[in-house]
């Protein structure tokens, strides 16, 4: 059997791209600065890159599955221009008040578990990175390490909570350095 790979489970909006809120137009996808190099470094170090994103705009009727797919493809293309390939992208289309509770909306862990099964990932050695506490919370349930990278939309109480229960890094670059520099020493 093949050895399981660790993954970096990455939030999308506010972590990889500017959070345009219920983004449905692929022309509006903008990579955040200084993300390609740390993503490439993770991949060279053997981490699968897996986007896990809550897209409640689908349940709210603000975007369709086709809109989501077009935005995902645009993100893939922009990253490819920077030499970065994602191993997978998973999304939750639900909104609890409209579509009922689900296990896939973060902090739910269904999408991480599905990715682990699809891509032969070792969740215990994986990273859970995002700009909201719900992005890093799955590390508490699944094992692995949660690293909050605060952005413009991160509430201060979530930063405090992540300082206590997970890790906080100033940038994706710093988050990756924190992990890989420690592995190297
Ligand atoms: Mg986000
Ligand atoms: Zn869901």
Automatic annotation (TrEMBL):
<keyword id="KW-0119">Carbohydrate metabolism</keyword>
<feature type="site" description="Stabilizes the phosphoryl group">
    <location>
        <position position="53"/>
    </location>
</feature>
<dbReference type="GO" id="GO:0016791">
    <property type="term" value="F:phosphatase activity"/>
</dbReference>
<dbReference type="InterPro" id="IPR023214">
    <property type="entry name" value="HAD_sf"/>
</dbReference>
<feature type="binding site">
    <location>
        <position position="102"/>
    </location>
    <ligand>
        <name>Zn(2+)</name>
    </ligand>
</feature>
<dbReference type="GO" id="GO:0005975">
    <property type="term" value="P:carbohydrate metabolic process"/>
</dbReference>
<comment type="similarity">
    <text>Belongs to the gmhB family.</text>
</comment>
<keyword id="KW-0479">Metal-binding</keyword>
<dbReference type="GO" id="GO:0005737">
    <property type="term" value="C:cytoplasm"/>
</dbReference>
<feature type="binding site">
    <location>
        <position position="11"/>
    </location>
    <ligand>
        <name>Mg(2+)</name>
    </ligand>
</feature>
<keyword id="KW-0378">Hydrolase</keyword>
<protein>
    <recommendedName>
        <fullName>D,D-heptose 1,7-bisphosphate phosphatase</fullName>
        <ecNumber>3.1.3.-</ecNumber>
    </recommendedName>
</protein>
<keyword id="KW-0460">Magnesium</keyword>
<keyword id="KW-0963">Cytoplasm</keyword>
<feature type="binding site">
    <location>
        <position position="104"/>
    </location>
    <ligand>
        <name>Zn(2+)</name>
    </ligand>
</feature>
<dbReference type="GO" id="GO:0046872">
    <property type="term" value="F:metal ion binding"/>
</dbReference>
<feature type="site" description="Stabilizes the phosphoryl group">
    <location>
        <position position="106"/>
    </location>
</feature>
<dbReference type="InterPro" id="IPR006543">
    <property type="entry name" value="Histidinol-phos"/>
</dbReference>
<dbReference type="InterPro" id="IPR006549">
    <property type="entry name" value="HAD-SF_hydro_IIIA"/>
</dbReference>
<feature type="binding site">
    <location>
        <position position="92"/>
    </location>
    <ligand>
        <name>Zn(2+)</name>
    </ligand>
</feature>
<dbReference type="Pfam" id="PF13242">
    <property type="entry name" value="Hydrolase_like"/>
</dbReference>
<dbReference type="InterPro" id="IPR004446">
    <property type="entry name" value="Heptose_bisP_phosphatase"/>
</dbReference>
<feature type="active site" description="Proton donor">
    <location>
        <position position="13"/>
    </location>
</feature>
<feature type="binding site">
    <location>
        <position position="94"/>
    </location>
    <ligand>
        <name>Zn(2+)</name>
    </ligand>
</feature>
<keyword id="KW-0862">Zinc</keyword>
<feature type="binding site">
    <location>
        <position position="131"/>
    </location>
    <ligand>
        <name>Mg(2+)</name>
    </ligand>
</feature>
<feature type="binding site">
    <location>
        <position position="13"/>
    </location>
    <ligand>
        <name>Mg(2+)</name>
    </ligand>
</feature>
<feature type="active site" description="Nucleophile">
    <location>
        <position position="11"/>
    </location>
</feature>
<dbReference type="InterPro" id="IPR036412">
    <property type="entry name" value="HAD-like_sf"/>
</dbReference>
<feature type="site" description="Contributes to substrate recognition">
    <location>
        <position position="105"/>
    </location>
</feature>
């Amino acid at each position: 059997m093949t050895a399981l790979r660790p993954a970096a489970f990455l939030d999308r909006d506010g972590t990889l791209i500017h959070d345009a809120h219920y983004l449905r137009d692929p022309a509006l996808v903008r990579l955040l600065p200084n993300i390609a190099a740390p993503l490439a470094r993770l991949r060279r170090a053997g981490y699968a890159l897996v986007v896990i994103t809550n897209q409640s705009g689908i349940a709210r009727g603000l975007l369709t599955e086709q809109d989501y797919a077009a935005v995902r493809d645009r993100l893939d293309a922009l990253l490819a221009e920077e030499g970065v390939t994602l191993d997978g992208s998973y999304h939750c289309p639900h909104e609890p008040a409209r579509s009922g509770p689900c296990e896939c909306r973060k902090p739910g862990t269904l999408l991480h578990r599905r990715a682990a099964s699809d891509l032969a990932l070792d969740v215990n050695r994986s990273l859970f990175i995002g700009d909201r506490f719900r992005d890093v919370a799955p590390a508490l349930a699944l094992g692995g390490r949660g690293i909050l990278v605060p952005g413009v939309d991160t509430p201060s109480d979530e930063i405090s909570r992540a300082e206590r229960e997970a890790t906080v890094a100033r940038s994706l670059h710093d988050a990756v350095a924190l992990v890989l520099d420690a592995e190297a020493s």
